[in-house]
């Protein structure tokens, strides 16, 4: 049997207790104050309990934390580059005062671990951001989290694990370090190179991983992060389905896949070193580090947070000490003339190269375009297409906004009939008045109530669109802020087509179908839109209907035409 690489610090720091102790802890926990862990803390806890973060046995105490910030070392001298801290709020501090033990739970109240209270302190977050992430810019996702979402205090202490956070997805692909080490051992391989990823894998990645495993003369571990990655990333369900398809393209037994419940920080070089230590704990001897490993991309002005190969340099500096080798890679590009992938530094002058970025790929999927064979595999693209169908198969919301009496409901009804005629699916209509008698019953017309009403409509619409349905919304929606929130929420799920139903106040007032303008002018109704409450005119609508100049049919036709141009019909 192959001798496996030792965990970082010499042994696996698993903190799960046995059955007998578990029962004791459960009964003790009833009288202890609880902390409900955030998603990120849950990920950290899982790796603390399973040994993924060996040699840590709990959340960092102050001396260890300061050492990690200063020179990436715990107080015992062991290398550790990322602070693993339990951040808590001022209220938590009051609640736990005087207690030596705290129950750590998930949102459902499930007891996961008991924390033996160590240090409690208020960290210097500016210093932490500067030391760890080399920036205090909130454009860096981990800095934004640190400054705006993490609690003001840190609570350190060792853990007694009651159970790992439960996962119900892909149970056969989830392994603790001990389990993965056992799998590696049973396959008789002593050299394993890990590939860290938070993105789908295509031919470039396949080529790169093939080269890496050939180079080390060992096996490949596809080790994707399924805890927390960068916002906007493709969800892990889709990714894992696509990795499973990719696995078929490797020679039998050459590659294995295991899911890593890590909460990434996008911390560039320090994070790369952390990844290396974690992979060592899982029994890997090598880690592939490519261009801009674990980087958060660039700032809005285009400045990168880290140099493209800084991560490789830092890991190289410490590889001997960590006892895991890096397999560095340059960006892989496709050279169509020779029909091969090669690292960008092997491209000869004048040689044509091709690449498709993640954003470009999503655009192509949305447009229903063919994805070239040189870029990816059929099985992988099939999986991505299920999550990112072409526009014609996506849901969409037509969001009509305009003054009372501008003609929103009339157009909405006509559009609903027209879409029902054209599409073979139901079309939901969330009209202002209908919503207010059902979904938003009891809400008035204060600024706050209107926002709640409009955002509720946006939420329901986003759910319908997520399920690939069609919805027409027709509230006044007078405030830009609410419309913008809805747009963002709905666009994440499919199409958002805003229609400004534009009729002047004079025209609406002249129509006064419900007699409300007269009442508003007489002061009987207060806060009436257009009279004594503002209507913020939108300047970003996909369609503008002039109901004082067009017929209903013409307005409806304008919207249908736009839906056709955008590819939703
Ligand atoms: S909002 O601002 O988007 O929440 O408004 P909405 O839900 O569309 O409701 C508008 C309908 O409520 C009637 N109504 C009022 N409108 C505006 N301001 C005040 N103060 C008000 N009080 C009652 C009015 O009939 C609106 O219907 P529509 O269909 O727009 O004419």
Write a structural description.
By secondary structure, the protein is of the alpha/beta class. The protein is built from 20 helices and 18 strands. Strands 1, 2, 3, 4, 5 and 6 form a 6-stranded mixed beta sheet that branches. Strands 9-8-7-10-11 form a 5-stranded parallel beta sheet, with helices on both faces. The longest helix is centred in the last third of the chain and has 20 residues, at 447-466. The protein is globular and about 85 Å long. The mean pLDDT is 96. The structure holds 3'-phosphate-adenosine-5'-phosphate sulfate. Residues 404-405, 409, 432-433, 436, 445, 450, 453-454, 475-478, 514, 516, 525, 527-529 line the site of 3'-phosphate-adenosine-5'-phosphate sulfate (PPS).
Beta-strand residue fraction: 15-25%
Q: How would you classify the helix and strand content by structural class?
A: alpha/beta
Measured between the Cα atoms of the first and last residue, the distance is: 61 Å
Give start-end ranges of low-pLDDT stretches.
Answer: none
Output the radius of gyration.
28 Å
Biggest pleated sheet:
6 strands, mixed
What ligands can be seen in this structure? 3'-phosphate-adenosine-5'-phosphate sulfate
Gross morphology is globular
| Nearest-integer average pLDDT | 96
User: How many beta-strand runs?
Assistant: 18
Number of helices: 20
How much helical structure, as a percent, in the residues? 25-40%
């Amino acid at each position: 049997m192959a001798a496996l690489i030792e965990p970082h610090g010499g042994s696996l720091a698993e903190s799960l207790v046995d059955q007998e102790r578990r029962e004791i802890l459960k009964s003790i926990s009833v009288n202890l104050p609880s902390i409900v862990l955030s998603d990120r803390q849950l990920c950290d806890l899982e790796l603390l309990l399973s040994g993924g973060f060996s040699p840590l046995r709990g959340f960092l105490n102050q001396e260890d934390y300061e050492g990690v910030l200063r020179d990436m070392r715990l107080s015992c001298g062991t290398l550790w580059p990322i602070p693993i801290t339990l951040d808590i709020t001022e209220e938590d501090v009051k609640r736990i005062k005087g207690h030596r033990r705290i129950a750590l739970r998930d949102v459902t109240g499930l007891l996961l671990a008991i924390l033996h209270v160590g240090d409690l302190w208020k960290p210097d977050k500016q210093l932490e951001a500067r030391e760890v992430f080399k920036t205090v810019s909130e454009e860096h996702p981990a800095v934004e989290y640190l400054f705006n979402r993490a609690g003001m205090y840190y609570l350190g202490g060792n853990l007694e694990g009651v159970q790992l956070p439960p996962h119900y997805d892909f149970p056969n692909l989830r392994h603790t370090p001990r389990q993965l080490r056992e799998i590696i051992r049973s396959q008789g391989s002593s050299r394993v190179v890990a590939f860290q990823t938070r993105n789908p894998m295509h031919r470039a990645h396949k080529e790169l991983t093939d080269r890496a495993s050939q180079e080390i003369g060992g096996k490949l571990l596809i080790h994707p992060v399924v805890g927390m990655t960068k916002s906007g990333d493709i969800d892990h369900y889709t990714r894992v389905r696509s990795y499973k398809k990719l696995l078929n393209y490797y020679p039998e037994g050459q590659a294995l896949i295991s899911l890593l419940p890590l909460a990434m920080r996008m911390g560039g070089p320090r994070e790369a070193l952390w990844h290396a230590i974690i992979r060592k704990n899982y029994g890997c001897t090598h880690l592939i580090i490519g261009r801009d490993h674990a980087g958060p991309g660039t700032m809005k002005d285009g400045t990168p947070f880290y140099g493209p190969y800084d991560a490789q340099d830092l890991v190289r500096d410490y590889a001997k000490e960590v006892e895991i080798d890096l397999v560095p890679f340059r960006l892989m590009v496709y050279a169509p003339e020779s029909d091969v992938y090669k690292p960008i530094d092997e491209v000869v002058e004048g040689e044509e190269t091709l690449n498709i970025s993640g954003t470009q790929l999503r655009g192509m999927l949305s447009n229903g375009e063919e994805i070239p064979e040189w870029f990816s595999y059929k099985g992988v693209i099939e999986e991505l297409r299920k999550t990112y169908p072409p526009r014609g198969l996506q849901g969409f919301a037509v969001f009509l906004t305009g003054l009372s009496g501008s003609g929103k409901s009339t157009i909405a009804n006509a559009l609903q009939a027209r879409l029902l005629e054209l599409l073979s699916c139901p079309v939901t209509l969330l009209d202002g008045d209908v919503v207010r008698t059902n979904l938003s019953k009891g809400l008035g017309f204060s600024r706050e109530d209107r926002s709640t009403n409009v955002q509720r409509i946006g939420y329901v619409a986003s759910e319908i669109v997520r399920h690939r349905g069609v919805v027409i919304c027709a509230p006044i929606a007078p405030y830009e802020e609410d419309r913008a929130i809805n747009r963002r929420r709905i666009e994440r799920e499919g199409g958002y087509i805003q229609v400004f139903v534009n009729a002047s106040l004079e025209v609406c007032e002249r129509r006064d179908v419900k007699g409300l303008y007269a009442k508003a002018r007489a002061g009987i109704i207060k806060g009436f839109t257009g009279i004594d409450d503002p209507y913020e005119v939108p300047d970003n609508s996909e369609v503008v209907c002039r109901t004082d100049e067009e017929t209903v049919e013409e307005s409806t036709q304008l919207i249908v035409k736009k839906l056709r141009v955008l590819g939703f019909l």
